[in-house]
Amino acid sequence: MFEPGLALCGAFYREVVRPLLDQPHTAALIGPGSEVLGFDSPRSTDHDWGPRLQLFVAPELAGEISAMLGRRLPASFRGYPVRFPATHGTDGHQVWAGPLAEWCAQRLGFDATRGVTDADWLATPTQRLAETTAGAVYHDGDGELTALRDRLAWYPEHLWRIVLAAQWTRIAQEEAFVGRTAEAGDELGSRVVAARLARDVMRLCLLLERRYPPYSKWLGSAFAALPDITATAAALRTAVGAGDAALRQEALCTAYELTGHRQNRLGLAPAVDTTRRMYHDRPYPVIDAGRFAAALHPGWTPGAVDTYVDSTDVLARPALTRALSGATHRDNPQPGAGRSPRS
User: Fold this and answer.
1) Rounded to two decimals, what is the model's pTM?
2) Helical residues (DSSP H) of the chain, grouped into ranges
3) How many Cα atoms occupy the beta-carbon half-sphere of 32 within 13 Å?
4) DSSP 83
5) Domain with CATH 1.20.120 in the chain
């Protein structure tokens, strides 16, 4: 019978790993992996899945602990091999040992144990933030990991508004194209634009509910788990599946209106009229999403790096996301920039 990875790895730590340790440590399962976000299933077990952990320890202990585990870990645990090939690792045991600051540098691109600047927030993809704040902490010896996860739990409010504004701006840039492409006889193009806009609405709804949007494989699963999302989800399904361009546009506008109401209820910005309207003198219903962006943040903002970058090869490399974000924001400094206090 399938046992979710978070439970399996917790038992692996308690029953196998912890009895082998007499050094101060913190044990967790965070970072990449469907089990970290709670989306694993029996299908997940075919690769990069099994008993694994991160052990956060003092730098001088990392090599000693890793070598000891290599000698003393059993061959299997609850029917799963303890040593299994990993796409981004070795073919040995999957218990990573090292300092928390080093793990942060590898996964986030900066040492979040020292605090988080506005530049750090905006250069970090939401997938990486989700991986760091989800998962499970099985033992926190010095409390440092819990403090770090609390620090990264959600954006500071001024950055939350910036990220939301940038997401609305994406919708504003293409919302009229569903009708225009269809009018030009480009049915496939109209469907593609509608799907892009549906994805943007899904990410926007997650952000409004203080949930970090995961990457595409799990975006729909995370969206479906949001509270009070049934009507919005139904509208987006209609928009993506509709064979008629008019129905496609109307369904998207329903989703926009519902999402606008969701934002207005938060009180993050002045309330915006959520009524759909025509795009200038053209017969394309839109929400005029730029109004929502303007209410949240004056002027243009690119937002967080994964608002304007959609390449896995880039988003999976912190050095690249930080370089791109730095260059993008260099001529567009955000208000309130600085380092958030340690928690």
Assistant:
1) 0.94
2) 5-12, 59-72, 100-107, 118-123, 126-133, 144-151, 157-174, 177-183, 187-208, 216-224, 230-241, 245-266, 290-296, 305-308, 312-315, 318-330
3) 17
4) B
5) 157-296
In the predicted model, what is the mean pLDDT of residues 61-71?
95
Tokens (6 digits) for 290: 């730029």
The residue among 87, 71, 148 whose CA lies nearest residue 114 is: 148
Evaluate whether the domain defined by 157-296 bears CATH number 1.20.120: yes
For residue 338, name the pLDDT band (cuts at 50, 70, 90): very low
Coil vs helix vs strand at 224: helix
What is the b/e burial string over 292-318, where b = at least 16 CB atoms within 10 angstroms of the residue's CB? bbbbbbeeebbbbbbbebeeeebbeeb
| For range 259-269, the mean pLDDT | 98
Residue labelled with tokens 């952990």: 53
**In degrees rounded to 5, what are phi and psi of residue 249?**
-65, -40
Type of residue numbered 294: A
Share of the chain above pLDDT 70, in %: 95
Of 86, 123, 119, which Cα lies nearest the Cα of 108?
123
Confidence of residue 220 (pLDDT cuts 50, 70, 90): very high
Q: Does pLDDT of 217 surpass 90?
A: yes
